[in-house]
């Protein structure tokens, strides 16, 4: 029995919640995963997983063994990266994820400059608004917008972005400019999935949250569509500040209710931070963090 392979499959099953998840994650047949985990349990002479039709759960022995397996696999991976030169020079593939619009506007230009500066490093940049799990998805670095939950991850703050309510000058000329958040109840609104509730918007009034019900005249599933609809005069929308820099500067959208914007969301570079960082990741952090700070500082109007 290859114990390291069996440990890896056991960890994948425990973290994925099922043997089939471990099979997909490790790209091996389900029968192989089941056999390897069973062999490991026979070798240890103890049950590690409670199997049910719905989900796997760890036994007490499984919890303790999972912690040990993670440590052992991390140390083996660290030794392999050292032998392969990842700790002596920036080389190899770096996997980075970022939100779609922010990634296209701000992360991609930094990545292209980094690739020019570090010819031995390749980058796989995945843009998506779904929150990825770094360890489970084998991601080296994630750009996260918003407050971070407590975790073992290391976060490097590079700036912040706000929530901005805006509309076209033509719409505001015809319907009037909202002066306080409550005025929005009389306006047509454009809402989109992924930025909080579709039925209410939250503002800050006298240092407290103030929730306003909004009428969704149009619902869309991307910020770009909401912005395009607002420029077309459909109604008022609410987006993140960096998403409308060009439109605000050109005058095609006019921000309103600026005095009532809630606290800005932080923007962080997040990585696992366990053990010694590979040189390729340290190099990217040193390269990207100041450039993203500068880009966010300039993303105002």
**Run of helices and strands:** HHHEEHEHEEEEHEEEEHEHEEH
How is the CATH topology of the largest domain named?
A: D-Maltodextrin-Binding Protein, domain 2
Number of strands: 14
| Mean pLDDT rating | 88
**Largest sheet geometry:** 5 strands, mixed
State the secondary-structure class. Answer: alpha/beta
Proportion of β residues?
15-25%
Which CATH architecture of the largest domain is right? 3-Layer(aba) Sandwich
Helix count from the secondary structure assignment = 9
Query: What is the CATH homology-level superfamily of the largest domain?
Result: Periplasmic binding protein-like II
User: In order across it, which strands form the biggest sheet?
Assistant: 4-3-5-14-6
Residue ranges: pLDDT <50 for 5 or more in a row? none
How much helix is in the residues?
A: 40-55%
- Any idea what the shape is? elongated
How many domains make up the coordinates? 3
The CATH class of the largest domain, by name, is Alpha Beta
């Amino acid at each position: 029995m290859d114990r390291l392979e069996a440990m890896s499959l056991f960890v994948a099953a425990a973290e994925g919640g099922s043997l089939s998840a471990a099979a997909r994650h490790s790209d091996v047949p389900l029968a192989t995963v089941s056999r390897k985990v069973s062999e490991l349990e026979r070798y240890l002479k103890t049950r590690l997983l409670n199997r049910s039709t719905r989900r796997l759960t760890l036994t007490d022995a499984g919890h303790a063994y999972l912690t040990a397996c993670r440590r052992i696999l991390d140390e083996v991976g660290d030794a392999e990266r050292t032998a392969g030169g990842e700790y002596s020079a920036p080389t190899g593939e770096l996997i980075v994820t970022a939100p779609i619009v922010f990634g296209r506007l701000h992360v991609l230009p930094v990545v292209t400059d980094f690739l020019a500066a570090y010819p031995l490093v390749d980058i796989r940049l995945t843009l998506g608004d779904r929150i990825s799990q770094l360890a489970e998805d084998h991601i080296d670095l994630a750009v996260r917008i918003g407050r971070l939950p407590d975790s073992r991850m290391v976060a490097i703050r590079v700036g912040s972005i706000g929530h901005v309510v805006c509309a076209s000058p033509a719409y505001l000329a015809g319907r009037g400019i909202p002066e306080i958040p409550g005025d929005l109840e009389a306006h047509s609104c454009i809402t989109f999935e992924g930025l909080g509730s579709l039925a209410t918007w939250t503002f800050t009034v006298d240092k407290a949250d103030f929730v306003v019900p909004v009428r969704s005249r149009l619902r869309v599933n991307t910020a770009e569509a909401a912005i395009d609809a607002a420029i077309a005069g459909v109604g008022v929308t609410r987006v993140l500040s960096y998403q409308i820099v060009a439109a605000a500067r050109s005058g095609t959208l006019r921000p309103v209710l600026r005095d009532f914007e809630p606290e800005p969301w932080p923007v962080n570079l997040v990585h696992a931070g366990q053990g010694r960082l590979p040189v390729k990741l340290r190099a990217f952090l040193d390269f990207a963090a100041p450039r993203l700070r500068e880009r966010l500082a300039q993303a105002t109007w």
